[in-house]
Protein: SAM-dependent chlorinase/fluorinase
Organism: Methanocaldococcus fervens
Amino acid sequence: MDIITLTTDFGTTEGYVGAMKGRILDILKKHNKTAKIVDICHEIRAFNIYHGAYVLLTAIPYFPPSVHVAVIDPTVGSERNSIVVETKNGHYLVGPDNGLFTYVVEKLEIKRVIKIDESKYIPSSTFHGRDVYAVVGAEILINNGYDGEELDDIVKLDTEKKRVIHIDRFGNVITNIRAEEVDFNLYDEILIKIKTKKGEKIIKCKFVKSYYEEKDEFICLINSEGFLEISKFMDNASKLLDVDYLDEIEILK
């Protein structure tokens, strides 16, 4: 069965996600098609493209070739592009061209980037998730692909400046520092400078392989997606450190 996934910052207390699903199912039914709709996440922090980009990375690569509709779109109705990204292994990513697909296309290489002609869909100026992206997602399943004006690349988030790109529900602080950028040894004591909105702080943490190896002090480790993460065993590191998204990180060693 065909699969289409949804990821949004719409939450589950409104009808927005239901409207998108209804639109997809209605279009597919008219073409005698069926699909399984999978919710990846609808609790992305409102307007937070970094959060959405990281969540897509943690989920999409583990699906068989599928259509993935993602809507974290703070500038909906503006001149930003809407796109379909076809990957080399058969996935289709549908959404605004605002950096949302930055991390996932590093793992699933881009084959083509296609600009969506929004004028074809007569969208509202505030709900492209329902009026454009849900429709395009259904069309990809019906037509086994999508054609249109091709673009050279997608808009990408800044990956040069080292910063916090995600805080998970456990309070683990995920940075955009890659495993290959880390040059310290297991169980080294590391000094990390964090620049928050309230000022700078320097913390000491032990570099470990897994959470349980240090139960009293802050730890840092390479997480399952290959990023450096700051944690505290069975505690909320982000609250203890008063850290938030996009706070700057510097390894002092």
